[in-house]
Write a structure and sequence with these properties.
This protein is an all-alpha fold and 132 residues long. The protein has one domain: Methane Monooxygenase Hydroxylase, Chain G, domain 1 (Up-down Bundle). Helices cover 86% and strands 0% of the residues. It is built from 3 helices and no strands. The mean pLDDT is 88.
């Protein structure tokens, strides 16, 4: 039984190394592109026209960002089996996995929040534009 468990752990480590390339790609994109783009949507202009342009740019970015989020979530899903293993040899991989999971979750949540905020701002500005 111990030998079988060890073999399973080694298989998981090999699987992790294959999936890690995907994690690295997603993580790199989040840090080098995604976060910068999200920061640009924090301070939006005060006119409806400018806001609509910002919303259009954000939608284009959102398509790409959502694809990276999906890709990262699929890779994480492949690693769900790690939860069953608690050996010391696997611990360092679990720490890396949790780090990727936290980073992806934080970014995807920020993306959702910005999507909702921009949509609400556009609706609000359109409402005020109609009232005038």
């Amino acid at each position: 039984m111990l030998s079988n468990k060890r073999i399973q752990e080694l298989e998981l480590v090999m699987e992790f190394e294959k999936v890690e390339e995907c994690f690295k790609e997603v993580s790199s994109w989040i840090e080098n592109v995604g976060r910068k783009q999200l920061k640009e949507t924090i301070n939006l202009d005060d006119s409806l026209e400018m806001l609509l342009q910002a919303q259009k740019r954000f939608r284009e970015f959102d398509l790409v960002a959502s694809e990276y989020c999906r890709k990262g979530q699929e890779a994480l899903k492949k690693m769900d089996r790690w939860e069953d293993f608690s050996s010391v040899d696997v611990q360092s991989y679990r720490v890396k996995l949790q780090s990727y999971r936290d980073q992806l979750e934080e970014f995807c949540n920020q993306l959702d929040e910005n999507r909702h905020r921009i949509c609400e701002m556009v609706r609000l500005y359109e409402f005020f534009d109609k009232v005038r």
